[in-house]
Amino acid sequence: MTQDAHDRLLIIDFGSQVTQLIARRLRELNVYCEIHPFNKVDTAFLHAFAPKAVIFSGGPASVFADGAPMPPAGVFDLGVPILGICYGQQVMMHCLGGKVERGHGTAEFGRAYVTPTPTTHPILSGWFDTDDGAGGREQVWMSHGDHVSEIAPGFQVLGTSPNAPFAITANPERHFYAVQFHPEVHHTPKGAQLYENFVRLAGFKGDWTMGAYREEAIRKIREQVGDERVICGLSGGVDSSVAAVLIHEAIGDQLTCVFVDHGLLRLGEAEQVVTMFRDTYNIPLIHADESDLFLGALEGVSDPEVKRKTIGRLFIEVFEKHAKSIGGAKFLAQGTLYPDVIESVSFSGGPSVTIKSHHNVGGLPEKMGMKLVEPLRELFKDEVRALGRELGLPQSFIGRHPFPGPGLAIRCPGEITREKLDILRRADAVYIDQIRKHGLYDEIWQAFAAILPMKTVGVMGDGRTYDYALALRAVTSVDGMTADYYPFTHDFLGETATRIINEVQGVNRVFYDCTSKPPGTIELE
Ligand code: XMP
Q1: Which of 84, 172, 307, 427 stands the most exposed, by the fewest C-beta atoms within 10 Å?
Q2: Which of 366, 398, 430 is the endpoint of a domain?
């Protein structure tokens, strides 16, 4: 089955912080959906997209504001079910003849409880179940200043909360539904059920599966590439690996992978990647050992941004050189994911501050005049993992913690030397081994050691030591945007520090980093 033949749901984004979560909830229901900003969706787009249902997201605006975001003309005449959430509800009522009032003491932020009205409707199937101990009311997550004060003609009220008399409303005849709260967040425990009811009422078959995606992606890659050659920059991370295996399945040896070893990889990492791709998958692979080039250029450099930019620039140069050596590749494969593609709605229009210059191969395609092959563009990270499993990649590989493009360079604050990198590699391996032995690896988003730019005095046996100090970091996170430090037990920390100092010459002190993000970042630089 092709993706174009799937039932498609359109999410019109009005700028909510949590719009992506709507897509997540729908994908979990095997429903194919896309998020598009309200100001990019016009009538022509609506007809071309041909959604089977539409969702209006929440958003920070007020329908009273000048130039308030509005849904596209004609959306209510498509004849498909529509669900409005928070601002989506307000704008729906506003457009269809209801009324919205400004906050004035009726704003609600955070947890609230909705109770049912005598009118029942299958959109609330599984809600207000008096046997579940909630006493017939449901917890929901509210975040609104304005509220609906009069519903549009044809709508009924299905649920109310103290400050939202129209918390859940429906126009059963037209299949329009509108809620004041956010069913997509975990703090609305039955929110997923509401989405399930909505897509069931809209007639979705739930046909968006990884098996279908794989077949369709292979067909599309073949169509796009024909008998041309493709190169793929392999980092050893999950995204580029899944992309490479998928493309190889589609076009075989028309694909060549380039693995740039910048000398900043973890212990045994280069060998693992090369063995897996060359020997297990028989994918043509160039292993570009360019450690002398990178480490030479980084000599004496201690500024984090200069390090990142140096690595980024050299990476592009090296990649380009090897791509040329293959000769005649017209396509460049990248493991771009859906969150990188979603165009965000900007109300302020201002640029955001650069915290770190992230390293990626962006800039390459324009420079090299190549076309892109991006078979993961429609997927979220956990879907990429599911696709990796579908393709038979080992779980040990798919479940690996993220590793940054600039590698150990940003775990070695201050000047980078080969000696420090060697100590860091060995210490990191002991730390990760400890985490695995204690069965904690999969609970942690990312764990690593960093070597600090200082030496401290210690005593070992009867002798004085003057060696490096090491910081251990481990965080939990959902997307890397925010993170909490992982609460290891003191026993674990003590045992790990002892093992590192005993097994790794050059370290005599170990710290554990208890900073969350924000205010810290995950990496040290
Ligand atoms: P920070 O340190 O910004 O990291 O909190 C968030 C996540 O991004 C990873 N990271 C990078 N990944 N290129 C990458 O591919 C980079 O330049 C880069 N810098 C940080 C980091 O490991 C964490 O998962």
Answers
A1: 172
A2: 398
Domain harbouring 387, CATH code: 3.40.50.620
Atom of ligand 1 nearest to the CA of 446: 24
User: 92 in a domain, yes or no?
Assistant: yes
38 and 111 share one domain: yes
Stretch (H or E) spanning 159: strand 156-161
Residue nearest to atom 9 of ligand 1 (CA): 404
Tokens of 66: 């000048």
Among residues 370, 398, 426, the one where a domain terminates is 398
| 278 CB-near residues (< 8 Å, 6+ apart) | 285, 287
The domain of 484 spans 417-512
- CATH number for position 459: 3.30.300.10
| Neighbouring C-beta atoms of residue 98, cutoff 10 Å | 21
Q: Is the pLDDT of residue 109 over 90?
A: no
Ligand 1 atom with the smallest distance to the CA of 356 is 3
Q: Is the CB of 522 under 6 A from ligand 1?
A: yes
User: Tell me, what's the pLDDT at 136?
Assistant: 85
For tokens 């009726």, what's the residue? 106
Q: Which residues pair with 488 in a beta bridge?
A: none
Together in a domain, 240 and 195 = no
| Model confidence, pTM | 0.77
* Alpha-carbon separation of residue 294 from 130, 312, 428 (angstroms): 65, 10, 21
pLDDT higher than threshold 80 for residue 443? yes
Write out the catalytic residue numbers. 86, 182, 184
pLDDT, residue 163, reads 85
Q: 94: CA distance to ligand 1 center in Å?
A: 42
Residue with tokens 């799937």: 6
What CA dihedral angle connects 499, 505, 510 and 516, to 10 degrees? Answer: -100
What is the position in ligand 1's atom list of the atom closest to the CA of 477? 24
Instruction: Give the total number of structural domains in the chain.
Output: 3
Q: Find the range with the poorest average confidence among 119-133, 220-234, 282-296, 300-314.
A: 119-133
Condensed to tens digits (0 to 9), the pLDDT of residues 374-425 reads: 999 888 888 899 999 999 999 988 999 999 999 999 999 999 999 999 999 9
Ligand 1 pocket check for 236: Cβ under 6 Å: no
Distance 419 CA to ligand 1 centre (A): 24
Hey, whose CA ends up nearest to atom 12 of ligand 1? Answer: 404
pLDDT, one tens digit per residue, over 349-373 is: 444 566 777 666 555 667 777 899 9
Co-location of 379 and 425 in the same domain: no
Same domain for 233 and 361? yes
